[in-house]
Amino acid sequence: MTARVHLGHDHVRHLLRQMIRIRHFESKCVELYQAQKILGFLHLYDGEEAVSVGVMEALAADDAVVATYREHGQAIARGIGMDVLMAEMLGKQEGCCRGRGGSMHIFDRKTRFYGGNAIVGGGLPLAVGVALGDKMQGRNAVTACFFGDGAVDEGEFHESMNLASLWHLPVLFVCENNLYAMGMALERAEAEPGLARKAAGYRMTGTGVDGMDVVAVENAARSAVEQIRAGGGPQFLECRTYRFRAHSMFDAQLYRTRDEVETWRRKGPIARFQSWLVQNGLIDAVEVHRIETEADAEIDRAVDFAEAGTLEPVEELERFVTMEAVPA
Amino acid sequence: MSSEVLMPALSPTMTEGKIARWVKSEGDSVRAGDVLAEIETDKATMEVEAVDEGILARIVIPEGTDHVAVNTPIAVIAANGEEVPEPAARPAAKPPPPEPRREPPRDTGRAGNGAAPPASVALPISEPEYAGKTVTQTVREALRDAIAEEMRRDADVLLIGEEVAEYQGAYKVSQGLLQEFGARRVIDTPITEHGFAGLGIGAAMAGLKPIVEFMTFNFAMQAMDQLINSAAKTRYMSGGQMSCPIVFRGPNGIAARVAAQHSQCYASWYAHVPGLKVVAPYTGADHKGLLKSAIRDPNPVVFLEHELVYGESFAVPDDPEFLVPIGKARIARAGDQVTITAFSRMVKLALEAADELAKAGISAEIVDLRSLRPFDIATVVASVKKTNRIVSVEEGWPFAGIGAEIAAIVMEQCFDWLDAPLRRVSGKDVPLPYAANLERLATPQVDDIVAAAREVAYR
Asked: Average per-residue pLDDT in chain B?
């Protein structure tokens, strides 16, 4: 770990807390899914928390985020309230998208969170466009665009990398390489499995980082964002990570062994960071317990909020198909 | 032996052009490949090269002559030393086209039908009659002026697409815009439709108002995912938080002799999608007024143009505040015995068919739909209640087309007023063939419209 990030007590506690909040929030989602309160597709981020938590630390309030259908981690780390997130999962009017988006389509105007995109690769050109909008309107903002290793095989990845670099737009491309595009192993899908190397084809700096190490991700993201904000053009960050659970809720995981999953679990971002903190005296077991308890209490409140929420009435069904004016 | 140099066709749709300049003079010797003259069309300037070696014996059409029809002899090349007899008479250049007829848009003032309509249905909209100054210009110029006026009015409007800047537009619609607004707002893209369509949508979500030009809508299929999944749905999926004020525009439909992959009408494809607005105008005024409305609209608008209409001239309002509301059809010709609906270039054919029908004593009312989503049901239904008969005309394929939708609307809303089943005139159910005879057979013709109207009129 480098010295770029100041690992003061407050900061390390914050990083750990964010990862725990995401992990516990999703555990609750699984419970609610099994109770058939959350339906449809539910893509869990279990194992990848260090990526979104580390990258978000590098962003400012005016920056923008474009994510995928596996975006609960990004949403929480970006600061969207668990209450409106959970209400969205439950399809309630109080949800951040008034129940129209669900798990895969989280949007939040306040934090400039542009989805929640359930088409693999679909968010990339949008992110480049958001960056163009910011640049043309004189905002010195960076757009962080999250996508998986599967998206790298879509034409949109290449079109977006080219346009962003060609026009020197402030985009941080964050590839969450969890080694499987659904069930397709990276080496079965890629002629060049070194994803960070692809950036060179677009004259872009490509950096590979251990995506299970939240401090390493934060460092790399801070360095990249700093250069982008200084006018250095887009950057590509490959975060090597692993998804502990199924692709979605229904997945027999025939494409990998239990041993492989267990090996990765031992390297998990929370277990690893937490034990490192404890060993080095930066945090103790009591404080960890307090973080967990507080997260669980926050999640319980979010569930209560969501359960108590109302269903959109039928008169609202067609609302927002088109609109009379751009929201202020 | 002498040979004639004929006015060349520089594009599949060129019918005439102007001799801008003779590069060679009478008496000059020329070799194959030498540039003889420069020809201008409304789309491009091109050079005419000599095919044979010899002497430029005679320039038949002097430079500066406009409206020279394709295949008119413009010069004679003689073999070296050969005498060339004077022709009996120089072929006359075609006279300039007559001033087009234009009926100003009018408000039919019809109300909707009761219950709150879905988003695909237009609410009754009043459209004030325009009584101001007009200029005669081509549709191509009207589109350019609409873009330029809106770009002057709103600094967030920009034009993005292939060849929109340096090339001045593949179909010359964006002529002069780079010079006026600069490369920051008139942006050439690589050939990357999926990329630049999505980029435009992202930019719209971030607060800009992009006009995305597709060189033709055939290429927009590369970007279909972004148009449908991002542009049309994001506002709804986000519960109204995100908006996408964007225009996708370019030529749509069947041009001339460009075969299956470049000849297709996408009207029904886009009109199917909630969250999009779709317009397909015919007149110059409607192109201008609807494009300006589309640019100002807070929703994504698919603006379907037509290559064969770009060069047509109309009286166009010369007023930066002239707008045509989206969602409002226009009675292009009033009549009381049969309703004919059409949009885009098919309006022209429908009007010609109405002339033919009038000779046979049949009074046709031509409804220029202009907007396909939201759809002006009220105007169509009111017309059918008056005429009791309806023919729909479109270039696209028949199955699940706009005509099919109109048939459903008429069944649901004015079945009891019908004296005959609706007839559809559409493109044939085949990929568009290249050969001229086959292409003609596959494309709606005036005669098809006349025949369909006579059939529903039982006359």
From this structure: 90
User: Pick from B202, B207, B275: which is nearest to A126 by CB?
Assistant: B202
Q: What 8-state DSSP symbol labels residue B185?
A: T
Q: What is the H or E stretch that residue B78 is in?
A: strand B73-78
What are the angstrom distances between the C-alpha of B121 and each of A206, B329, B377, B379?
49, 12, 7, 11
Helix (H) or strand (E) holding A237: strand A235-240
DSSP string computed for A31-51 = HHHHTTSS-S-----TT-HHH
Q: Within an 8 Å CB–CB cutoff, is residue B437 touching chain A?
A: no
Residues of chain B found within 8 Å of residue A155, distances taken between Cβ atoms = 194
- Residue B226 DSSP symbol: I
Pairwise CA distance, residues B433 & B441, whole Å: 9
Minimum CA–CA partner of B209 in chain A? A133
A99 Cβ under 8 Å from any chain B Cβ: yes
Residue B199 near residue A128, CB atoms below 8 Å: yes
Contact (Cβ atoms closer than 8 angstroms) between residue A37 and residue A204 = no
Segment (H or E) for B402: helix B402-414
Q: Which CATH class, in words, describes the domain spanning A9-306?
A: alpha beta
Contact present, A294 and A74 (Cβ < 8 Å): no
Question: Looking at beta carbons, which residues of chain B come within 8 Å of A130?
Answer: 202-203, 205-206
Evaluate if residue B118 carries a pLDDT over 70.
Answer: no
Query: How large a percentage of chain B has pLDDT more than 70?
Result: 90
Q: Which of the residues of B are catalytic?
A: 193, 262
Tell me if ipTM is over 0.90: yes
Q: Which residues contact A235 (CB under 8 A, 6 or more apart)?
A: A171, A172, A173, A199, A204, A205, A206, A207, A224, A227, A228
Alpha-carbon distance A5 to A219, whole Å? 6
**For B267-294, how does the pLDDT look when each residue is reduced to its tens digit (9 = 90+)?**
999 999 999 999 999 999 999 999 999 9
Please state, in angstroms and rounded to a whole number, the distance separating the CA atoms of residues B135 and B131: 12
Statement: residue B42 has pLDDT above 90 = no
In sequence order, the 6+-apart residues with CB closer than 8 A to the CB of B295 are B146, B147, B150, B154, B157, B209, B211, B247
- Residue A152's alpha-carbon distances to A277, A318, B240, in angstroms, are 35, 35, 30
Give the count of alpha carbons within 13 A of B318, CB side only: 8
- Answer whether B119 touches A (CB < 8 Å): yes
Q: Within a 10 A sphere around the Cβ of A282, how many other Cβ atoms?
A: 17
Phi-psi group of B110: left, alpha or beta (phi > 0 → left; psi -120 to 50 → alpha; rest → beta): beta
Q: In a 3-state reduction of DSSP, which class is residue B180?
A: helix
Chain segment A179-218, per-residue pLDDT in tens: 999 999 999 999 999 999 999 999 999 999 999 999 999 9
Residue among B111, B133, B134, B135 nearest B123 (CA) = B111
> Edge-to-edge strands of the sheet including B16-22?
B45-49, B35-40, B16-22, B68-69
Looking at chain A, how many residues does it have? 328
CB distance from B182 to chain A under 8 Å? no
Choose the closest CB to A122 out of B225, B242, B277: B225
Cβ neighbours of residue A49 closer than 8 Å, sequence gap 6 or more: A18, A19, A22, A23, A73, A214, A269, A270
Spatial separation of the C-alpha atoms in residues B230 and B226, rounded to whole Å: 5
